[in-house]
Amino acid sequence: SVVDLAAMRDAVVELGGRAEQINPFIPSELVVDHSVQVDAYGREDALDLNEKIEFKRNNERYEFLHWGKNAFKNFVVVPPATGIVHQVNLEYLARVVMAAEVDGELTAYPDTVFGTDSHTTMINGIGVLGWGVGGIEAEAAMLGQPSSMLIPQVVGFELKGKLTEGVTATDLVLRVVEMLRAHGVVGKFVEFYGEGLHSMPLADRATIANMSPEYGATCGIFPIDQMAIDYLRLSGREESQIELVEKYAKAQGLWHDADTPAATYSSKLELDLSSVKPALAGPNLPQQRINLSDMHEKFGETLEKMTKDRKSEIDGKVRFDQEGAQQEQADRLYAKPNVFSDVNIDDKSHKLRDGSVVIAAITSCTNTSNPAVMIGAGLVAKKAAAKGLKAKPWVKTSLAPGSKVVTDYLEKTKLMDELEKTGFYLVGYGCTTCIGNSGPLLESIEQGIKENDLVAAAVLSGNRNFEGRIHSHVKASYLASPPLVVAYALAGTVDIDLTTHPLGQDQDGNDVFLKDIWPTSDEINELIANNIDADMFRKNYGEVFDGSAAWNAISSADSQLYPWSEKSTYIKNPPFFDGMTMEPEGIPDIEGARILGLFGDSITTDHISPAGNIDANSPAGKYLQERGVMPADFNSYGSRRGNDAVMTRGTFANIRIKNQMMGGKEGGYTYYFKGDNATLKDGEEMAIYDAAMKYKEDQRPLVVLGGAEYGSGSSRDWAAKGTILLGVKAVLTSSFERIHRSNLVGMGVLPLTFKDDENADTYHLDGSEVLSITGLDNGESKTATVTATRADGSTETFEVNVMLQTPKEREYVRHGGVLHYVLRQLAAESKNAA
Which helix (H) or strand (E) holds 406? Predict the structure, then answer.
């Protein structure tokens, strides 16, 4: 986003405006949290080592951010190695009620927030309305543009009763995600209410609100009540601010208590909290909830699906080398078919199997913001360590809290030591594994997985587990509470029923079961009450903007325009505004378009624009190597977002994406068709980026086809930016996830949907057709006509919906995107003023 603002300064000057016109109009706070990777782990100095590597890798980016914090007004930066944006917002930045002079009069009004990450909704837990938007929409808001939307339906979610002993907030949110996904809440608000709120801590509410994108809602709002006030006090807010929040909420009808009358909702659901059971979600979607007791059986089903195409010589291997009773136990424990690889770790041989946990990560603001599950994880570790248990050697363990407050209370309770005994050392303050920055596995582990195409697993306390997101060598990823993350690290496999089978044996050879080391709620609550206080928050957030010595040692240019460097492989002036004039292009009909990709349902923004590792043989990897960057220094796609050349090449480059034109082949491939008369057999297979560039040479417009829930997941603006830079003019799907549709509009890409119950299969489209999209009427028409012409001259003609929802959105697309619209406005104002 800051790169775009810098580029806009150059562009507005080119159009006759002033650089200073590009400045945030509203308070804008940037938290650097997506850069740290888990390189070092399982050792006391892991935190220091990872921070040093982070600063070395990201020096160019951090120099640029240093320039930005000095060049822009109304803009502050929370430096790296501080925490995760949503947790920092919850614990410190959020005001709940704002106060400012409006027309010369001091005015109080509700706090609201736009965040460039979809989990911005976490702040809904404290009664602040806000949601995630793409960087494009955020930039427009920063520059004074209103955000337009259709008035949403509001779904009421009634909570009754209390959670039972042993059930966590993570178990609860996975149940909520499952229910709301089934109900259908995309583009809707969800409001939580009911007597179940009275016993629900603020941290649990924040966990539920955080995963609003996973259940598909725009937001998941909780009321302002006594719990919210208590949390503001606990987190060290000023008493004057707390008093303002309470009085304002009561005066304005925003306060909630037992006497609050019931509201009227568009639709309602209810959940008895006592019915929630311990659970995980996976292997690749957050709504795939699995009761803990069903995990062994469900993984068996997953394994069968994932290995159906595995080479027969692998399936034919002997499953186990044990005999007798051990063979019998192994058959009971491990799903079929099951193969193994012998791997060497610290000069010892171990068997790596389907279902082996190779990553166990306590990560993400979703759960590390919640003291109950973090203390719970520490107590599980303490009891396990007392019985001589620790993580299996093949498990990469990590602990990455969302704020330093977590470290303080874990150290105060002595639970940090216990976590370390079981293998969980502090690795950093940031998103790490949850965003895909899990770092490399041991070479022997990676080789063992590849050798027999193993279905390796990850267990993480995150909010997303999409295909290819957590690690390129992990096929099955499961979301779980921090205590369960510890438990699965001890077990070393997800192919187990932890409710009936032991985690391991103690020093005397006795079986140790999960129930033997699971803490009671009384144990957890006592430690929270005695060890977490407001002083912890005040101490850590009193210096939140200061940064480390490494951050403060960075120097940057002192200028209004950024001095772009041609040599940089991290920061480039993007081409969005190249050749831009004061006149918008409008929305013409699309003629003679080729289909760049034909995708199925649930294509996420991770599929479209991955954030993790860059493959050396991918177009992005080749680009970097051509510029002297060795694979060891690639960093990640997420860290290269300031370089459009890398990100465009990375669009649709996820190793797990499947273009249906290519049959079952995984990866970012497509067919390039020369001319108008070609079948699939005539196509030339190549990387999607390479095909797009050949089509650009042909001056051929492109269209992408998708299924339901296209663009779900992260509010990743590069999923839209990369799409437009590939030359895609329109995306036609069964349905869009809210943020991605908005991002496409923001970049000037036309979002279209099939009519109800229709999709590409309805019209037998295989991706070789030439498409024309007519009747757009400069964006005014609510429908358009698609004509698909095959190689033999036969055609399919059908109507589609034009998903431009407001007059402002139509205006944005006519201008080629919201940033172009803003630039033209500002340049015109400057000329008029002159």
Answer: helix 404-412
Tokens of 317: 């291997």
> Is 80 exceeded by the pLDDT of residue 834?
no
- Domain-terminating residue out of 242, 275, 308: 275
Same domain, 295 and 430: yes
Q: What angle do the packed helices 135-142 and 2-14 form, to 10 degrees?
A: 60
Q: What is the pLDDT of residues 65-83, one digit of tens each?
A: 999 999 999 999 999 999 9
User: Domain end: 256, 275, 294, which one?
Assistant: 275
Integer Cα distance of 686 and 304 in angstroms: 30
DSSP three-state, residue 457: strand
**What φ, ψ does residue 646 adopt, rounded to 5°?**
-70, -45
Alpha-carbon dihedral angle through residues 128, 134, 139, 141, given to the nearest 10 degrees: -40
Residues 492 and 592 in one domain: no
CATH number at residue 793: 3.20.19.10
Inside any domain, residue 167: yes
For the chain, the domain total comes to 3
Quick one: which of 423, 427, 422 has its CA closest to 438? Answer: 427
Tokens 């940090």 belong to 416
* Cα 725 to the center of its chain, rounded Å: 22
Average pLDDT over residues 235-250: 98
In a domain, 834, yes or no: no
Q: Quick one: 268 and 327 in the same domain? A: no
Same domain, 240 and 311: no
Burial degree of 563 (CB within 10 A; 0-12, 13-18, 19+): exposed
What CATH number has the domain bearing residue 407?
Answer: 3.30.499.10
Residue 332: is its pLDDT beyond 80?
no
DSSP one-letter string for 564-610: --TT-SS----GGGTT--SS------EEEEEEEEE--S--BHHHHS-
Residue 652: inside a domain: no
Q: Which two tokens stand for residue 577?
A: 């505004």
Report the predicted TM-score, pTM, of the whole model to 2 decimal places.
0.87
Token pair listed for 181: 């996904």
Any idea how long the chain is?
A: 834
Q: 175 with 199, same domain?
A: yes
Q: Which domain holds residue 74?
A: 2-275
How many CB atoms neighbour CB 1 within 10 A? 18
Same domain, 65 and 135: yes
Mean pLDDT of the chain: 94
103-158 tens-digit pLDDT = 999 999 999 999 988 899 999 999 999 999 888 889 999 999 988 888 999 999 99
179 burial (CB, 10 Å; 0-12 / 13-18 / 19+) is middle
Please check whether residues 530 and 601 belong to one and the same domain.
no
Residues 257 and 289 in one domain: no
Give the span between the Cα atoms of 400 and 47, in whole angstroms. 9
What's the mean pLDDT in 421-438?
93
Does residue 281 contact residue 289 with C-beta atoms inside 8 Å? yes
Q: Tokens at residue 154, please? A: 């509001």
> Residue 231 in contact with residue 122, Cβ under 8 Å?
no
189-210 burial by CB neighbour count: b if 16+ within 10 A, else e? Answer: bbbbbbebbeebbbbbbbbbbb
Which residue in the block uniquely carries the two structure tokens 């081409």?
Answer: 575
Q: Which residues contact 324 (CB under 8 A, 6 or more apart)?
A: none
pLDDT tens readout for residues 334-371: 555 568 999 999 999 999 999 999 999 999 888 989 99
573 within a domain of the structure (yes/no): no
% pLDDT > 70, the chain: 97
Q: Across the strands, what pairs with 732?
A: 705, 752
